[in-house]
Amino acid sequence: MTPAPVGLLAELTHRCPLACPYCSNPLDLDPKRNELDTAAWQRVFAEAAGLGVLHVHLSGGEPAARPDLEALVATCAANTLYSNLITSGIGLSPARITALAAAGLDHVQLSIQHADAAPADRIAGYRGAAARKAEVARAVVAAGLPLTVNVVLHRANLEAVAEIAALAERMGARRLELAHAQYYGWGLANRAALQGPRAKVLAAVREVEGLKARYAGRLVIDHVLPDYFARHPKACMGGWGRRSLNVTPSGKVLPCHGAERIPGLDVWSVADHALGDIWTSSPAFNAFRGTSWMQEPCASCPRREVDFGGCRCQALALAGDARATDPVCVYSPKRAEIDRLLSQEAQAPPPYRYRARV
Ligand code: SF4
Ligand code: FES
């Protein structure tokens, strides 16, 4: 029996006013004409609730680009799904935030890029973004919605984590997620520009751990560690096909945001199948479930049900084989190559390749 998924990431659109170089969306973005319509998303949410999903993350791109966002939030509420809006804030007026709260929105996760406006706008590729985000944070708090501030950490903001935590507290956030960059989609294309030197990355890790203690009781700080520097990989998605599913703007259902790039993976769409059938029977979800697909050294490793061999998309990107041990693992034969690559890339970062707009 496959246990029920807990969460669903609904990528409502790939459209976004920002162009962040660490974006995990694919290089081939879904155009607007391919997006699921309102009724299709509403069916997906009803099926998700029936399947046992508890949380829906309304994401993108920028979900506020969808004029039906309020209707989609209301559908989540009607199905007793906890709704989390993952937003850049651009496109959210105070009136719209009030309407979303009235529709039943449960939580807002607002991204910021830096504590200072000039580097924040440069990273986002959008002049005035930082000021707009500050207004959105005020409106979210005024509407009584719980606010999480999310920041992707990389070379350009590693040394600003203390200022970022202070800003998140001033914004009225209850939670701050400091997530070291992970390299998928546009982020992978920009890895050499984003990756900080080892000493700075590790100094930021220590500083964030200190901030967690300093802000205890005022601001919860979640720290997503830089797994390229870890001994063992992350259990990506909590294990393939174990906890959650991603639905792309055009309705493909993926075990993770990078899975579309894995060659030969047979991905099913909500246009052709019920969500429950996809979860239990889609070849893509069954490709890396459990441990039977593993090669050595994972196949006989005592951690195989702790990290599930790491991330399949990272194995593809770094080792050229989605079935390989995640190369960031200390037991991977490719680990020394990763260390070489990191020290080379840290020398001379290229300019950002900004995410395309669709
Ligand atoms: Fe995880 Fe595989 Fe490394 Fe073991 S060998 S720690 S299962 S990635
Ligand atoms: Fe695809 Fe990690 S992002 S398995």
UniProtKB/TrEMBL annotation:
<dbReference type="InterPro" id="IPR023885">
    <property type="entry name" value="4Fe4S-binding_SPASM_dom"/>
</dbReference>
<keyword id="KW-0004">4Fe-4S</keyword>
<dbReference type="GO" id="GO:0016491">
    <property type="term" value="F:oxidoreductase activity"/>
</dbReference>
<dbReference type="GO" id="GO:0005506">
    <property type="term" value="F:iron ion binding"/>
</dbReference>
<keyword id="KW-0949">S-adenosyl-L-methionine</keyword>
<feature type="binding site">
    <location>
        <position position="20"/>
    </location>
    <ligand>
        <name>[4Fe-4S] cluster</name>
    </ligand>
</feature>
<dbReference type="InterPro" id="IPR050377">
    <property type="entry name" value="Radical_SAM_PqqE_MftC-like"/>
</dbReference>
<dbReference type="InterPro" id="IPR011843">
    <property type="entry name" value="PQQ_synth_PqqE_bac"/>
</dbReference>
<keyword id="KW-0408">Iron</keyword>
<comment type="pathway">
    <text>Cofactor biosynthesis; pyrroloquinoline quinone biosynthesis.</text>
</comment>
<keyword id="KW-0411">Iron-sulfur</keyword>
<keyword id="KW-0560">Oxidoreductase</keyword>
<dbReference type="InterPro" id="IPR017200">
    <property type="entry name" value="PqqE-like"/>
</dbReference>
<comment type="subunit">
    <text>Interacts with PqqD. The interaction is necessary for activity of PqqE.</text>
</comment>
<dbReference type="Pfam" id="PF04055">
    <property type="entry name" value="Radical_SAM"/>
</dbReference>
<dbReference type="Pfam" id="PF13186">
    <property type="entry name" value="SPASM"/>
</dbReference>
<feature type="binding site">
    <location>
        <position position="16"/>
    </location>
    <ligand>
        <name>[4Fe-4S] cluster</name>
    </ligand>
</feature>
<comment type="similarity">
    <text>Belongs to the radical SAM superfamily. PqqE family.</text>
</comment>
<comment type="function">
    <text>Catalyzes the cross-linking of a glutamate residue and a tyrosine residue in the PqqA protein as part of the biosynthesis of pyrroloquinoline quinone (PQQ).</text>
</comment>
<dbReference type="InterPro" id="IPR058240">
    <property type="entry name" value="rSAM_sf"/>
</dbReference>
<feature type="domain" description="Radical SAM core">
    <location>
        <begin position="2"/>
        <end position="218"/>
    </location>
</feature>
<dbReference type="GO" id="GO:0018189">
    <property type="term" value="P:pyrroloquinoline quinone biosynthetic process"/>
</dbReference>
<dbReference type="InterPro" id="IPR013785">
    <property type="entry name" value="Aldolase_TIM"/>
</dbReference>
<dbReference type="GO" id="GO:1904047">
    <property type="term" value="F:S-adenosyl-L-methionine binding"/>
</dbReference>
<dbReference type="InterPro" id="IPR007197">
    <property type="entry name" value="rSAM"/>
</dbReference>
<keyword id="KW-0479">Metal-binding</keyword>
<dbReference type="GO" id="GO:0051539">
    <property type="term" value="F:4 iron, 4 sulfur cluster binding"/>
</dbReference>
<protein>
    <recommendedName>
        <fullName>PqqA peptide cyclase</fullName>
        <ecNumber>1.21.98.4</ecNumber>
    </recommendedName>
</protein>
<keyword id="KW-0884">PQQ biosynthesis</keyword>
<feature type="binding site">
    <location>
        <position position="23"/>
    </location>
    <ligand>
        <name>[4Fe-4S] cluster</name>
    </ligand>
</feature>
<dbReference type="GO" id="GO:0009975">
    <property type="term" value="F:cyclase activity"/>
</dbReference>
